[in-house]
Every structure is written in C-alpha cells, then in structure tokens.
Amino acid sequence: TAVKDPERGLRSQLSRTRSAIGGTLGTLLRSDTLDDAFWDELEETLIAADVGVGPSTTAVDDVRKQRPSDGEQARQLLEEALISQLSGRDRSLHLEGRPAVVLVVGVNGTGKTTSIAKIAGLLGENDQTAVLGAADTFRAAADEQLRTWAGRVGVEVISGSPGSDPASVAYDAYRSSEASGADVVLVDTAGRLHSKSNLMDELGKVARVLRREAGEIGEVLLVLDGTTGQNGIGQARSFADSVGVTGIVLTKLDGTAKGGIAIAVEQELNIPVKYIGVGEGVHDLVPFDPRT
Ligand code: GDP
Ligand code: MG
Q1: Under 8 Å CB-to-CB from 139, ≥6 apart: which residues?
Q2: Closest residue CA from atom 13 of ligand 1
Q3: Is the CB of 254 under 6 A from ligand 1?
Q4: Mutation pick for ligand 1 pocket among 280, 284, 286 (CB with most ligand atoms within 8 Å)
Q5: For 207, phi and psi rounded to 5 degrees?
Q6: The whole model's pTM is what?
Q7: Ligand 1 test: best mutation among 12, 16, 114, most atoms within 8 Å of CB?
Q8: Cis omega (within 30 of 0) for bond into 99
Q9: What is the pLDDT of residues 226-280, one digit of tens each?
Q10: φ, ψ dihedrals at 116, nearest 5°
Q11: Contacts of 177 (CB under 8 A, 6+ apart)
C-alpha cells in the first residue's frame, strides 16, 4: 500500500535506527542536572552512535557553551548543533552531459546494485531515462541480479560476458546510452576487497574510460552500509583516494544502524551524503534530508 505521508513512512522505516541512539539519549536528556558527568555521557552517547569523536566533541561543546537550563533545552540545542554540522551541502545529483554518467562504487554487499536500480526508478519518476551498465563482471550472478532489478524499474541493462573487462562494459554502456538518447548511464561495479589494489586499479580504469568518452563523470557515488559504523570511514577514504567520490549513498538505515555515520563521513571526508537506503524495496531510497 502507498504511504500517504512520506515523512511518517520514513519515520517508521528509521525507527530501529532511532531507538538505537534515542533510548540512551532520551533518558539522558530528561535529566535536569547538567553537570560534568552529564556532558561526558552525552559525548559518549554520540560517539557510540557513530557520530565520530571530532564531530561529537564539537556538538557537545557547542551546546554546553549556550548554557541550557535543563535537559529539554539541551536536547533542542543538540538537535540544532547536529543539523548545523550537516548544513550547507549540495546534495543534488549532478547530471550534466547526455548521457550523464553515474559511476557507483563500494565494497561487496553494501547495496550498490539495489541502489542503482532504486536511483533509476527515481529518475524514471522524473521522466529521465536511464541505462544500467553491468560492470561487475567478477561475480557470475551479478549481471542477473542487476537484470532482475532493472526489470522492476523498466530500464535497459548493457553487460559483457562473465569475466570480461569492466572498463569495456562501461564503454559499451556509455556508447549504447548515447545511441539510444538515454539521459543517464548508471554503471555498477565489483566490490571484492580481498584484492584491494586490483579493485582500485580496475575502478580507476573504468573511471578513465568513462571520463574519456563523456568528458566528465557527473557523479561517483560510494555506497556505504550504515551498519558498518566507523569502518565505513576507512572504506570511504580508500575509494575517495582512488576514484574521487562525489557523493555517498548510506544504506540499511532501516536496520540497526545508528546513523551517526552520516555526520562522521561528511565531516571527516568532506563528501555529502546524497541518498539513504531504508529498505529492500524499489522505493526504499530517499534523498538525504538532515532535518527529517
Ligand atoms: P552490492 O554487493 O553492493 O551490489 O549489494 P546489493 O545491492 O546486492 O545488496 C546486498 C544486500 O543488501 C541485498 O540483500 C539488498 O537487498 C540489501 N540492501 C541494500 N540496500 C538496503 C537497505 O537500504 N536496507 C536493507 N534492509 N537492505 C538493503
Ligand atoms: Mg552488486
């Protein structure tokens, strides 16, 4: 059934993530004794919620220096302090060029393939046609999974034979999108980590081919699993160094993720979170709105 109030739908999808942090925080913020122990515990709670040490300290200092008189006031100030750390970012997708190129990277299982299909679905709702490039040629099942998802959103998939060169699949997908007049080509990639330098070399080659054909890549989206917490920062850093990430898709926030990773990754890597994944259905990807 359709969700009548999208914001209410999102709140229920995020309920587990919210209770993962909200329980402790809620109890703490009902306190009226704002002593040193209170501020320490507040900082620890934020760190435990994956907000990151630096951003947690900044937020707590920010609230504390405004001298709130009780927990409720501290709660309101904290909300503003956290939102202000997430403000001023350009979270739109940059889709210049025809076709515009979106390269999607990330380690296995983070949600690349499903997120690509969900983005194609969102583009379709906006009357933009997408073509998917199946450049994860490493796993035999990857192509079929992408095709299944593409069928759900009604978009075309360009793939190579199993084991073929990912860069050549990306090239074919770009050329085919150009020929068919598609608006956007979304390129899926492999994410195996056991040979990290090979993966980064391979992604570098895919990016070079796409840049050569298109002139520029509109977006390199890194898909991060929200439940991996601080490990996600390290992952993001290696992808950012190798292929230059322009936006983050933070998935699985409908699970037990604590969500603070959105703040940590933005502050520590200076890369905006553009979308969040809130479920396994085709509509379960939404533009990231910090206030909501
Ligand atoms: P890939 O290896 O990066 O391509 O990851 P997949 O797209 O194959 O996703 C791996 C698993 O995570 C699949 O079972 C997806 O259904 C699941 N998944 C992806 N995004 C989300 C999300 O936002 N929420 C939930 N609950 N599961 C997700
Ligand atoms: Mg995949």
Answers
A1: 190, 192
A2: 111
A3: yes
A4: 280
A5: -65, -40
A6: 0.94
A7: 114
A8: yes
A9: 998 888 898 899 999 999 999 999 999 998 888 899 999 999 899 999 999 999 9
A10: -60, -45
A11: 99, 131, 158, 184, 185
